[in-house]
Amino acid sequence: MALGEYRRDKDESPMQVAIKVLKKEDARLQLLEEACVMAQVDHPNLVRSLGVCTTGRPMMLVLEFAAHGPLNDFLKEHSTGLAKMSPEMQMQASMDVLEGMAYLEAVGLIHRDLAARNVLLDHEYRCKVSDFGLAKFGSDDDTYYVAENLDALPVRWLAPEALEHQKCGS
Ligand SMILES: Nc1ncnc2c1ncn2[C@@H]1O[C@H](COP(=O)(O)OP(=O)(O)O)[C@@H](O)[C@H]1O
Ligand SMILES: [Mg+2]
């Protein structure tokens, strides 16, 4: 991830952006798919994509910059002492992630990689779900996996409804 500056037109003052740079040339299609998914969603609790740069190499995905970085690091740094996250802030973070994910559910996009490392905090400490590298559009009617027993499911990471129905998407 690199930092950059972006302006929509030359009279506008530049804004800070994050730039996801293609690491391996053979992953161009993957980054394009991620850009394509991001272009189809828009919500205050999702990291916004501003565009993709396909001319020249490496290919780049330009994203709104989340100044306070990943939630997992933030949680580790603010788990004790004076810097400890207040219950209000914890509740706000949970609500932010929940609203971002509820929006994804409503538009039929399955994130498939939700983890604190893929939730970013912006300059106002609001959470935004990011990293759409594994996301795909789909629904319950598409292919899914029905487990014969709970041993075959990644129980620690499952949503309660997937546990209850012993059914999860691929
Ligand atoms: N919009 C952003 N603003 C600030 N940092 C970012 C942003 N997007 C990604 N990062 C940083 O780059 C890291 C990796 O980005 P991510 O999209 O999760 O890529 P990967 O597919 O490599 O996991 C994140 O954990 C975060 O530290
Ligand atoms: Mg990630």
Helix content: 25-40%
Strand order of the largest sheet: 1-2-4-3
Structural class: alpha+beta
* Strand portion: 15-25%
The run of helices and strands is EEHEEEHHEEEEEHE
Q: Based on the structure given, which CATH architecture of the largest domain is correct?
A: Orthogonal Bundle
Averaged pLDDT: 91
CATH class of the largest domain: Mainly Alpha
> Could you say which overall geometry the principal axes of the C-alpha atoms support?
globular
Task: Note down, in words, how this protein is organized.
- The protein has two domains: 2-138, Orthogonal Bundle (Transferase(Phosphotransferase), domain 1); 144-170, no CATH class.
- The protein is built from four helices and eleven strands.
- With 170 residues, the protein is of the alpha+beta class.
- The mean pLDDT is 91.
- 27% of the residues lie in helices and 24% in strands.
- The protein has a four-stranded antiparallel sheet, covered by helices on one side. Strands 5-7-8 form a three-stranded antiparallel sheet. A two-stranded antiparallel ribbon has the order 6-9.
- A hairpin with a 6-residue loop joins strand 3 (49-53) and strand 4 (60-64).
- It is globular and about 60 Å long.
- It starts with a strand and ends with a strand.
- The longest helix has 21 residues, at 87-107.
- The protein has helices at residues 28-39, 71-77, 87-107, 160-165; strands spanning 2-6, 15-21, 49-53, 60-64, 69-70, 109-110, 119-121, 127-129, 136-137, 144-146, 167-169.
- Adenosine-5'-diphosphate is lined by residues 1, 18, 20, 47, 63-66, 69-70, 117-118, 120, 130-131, 133.
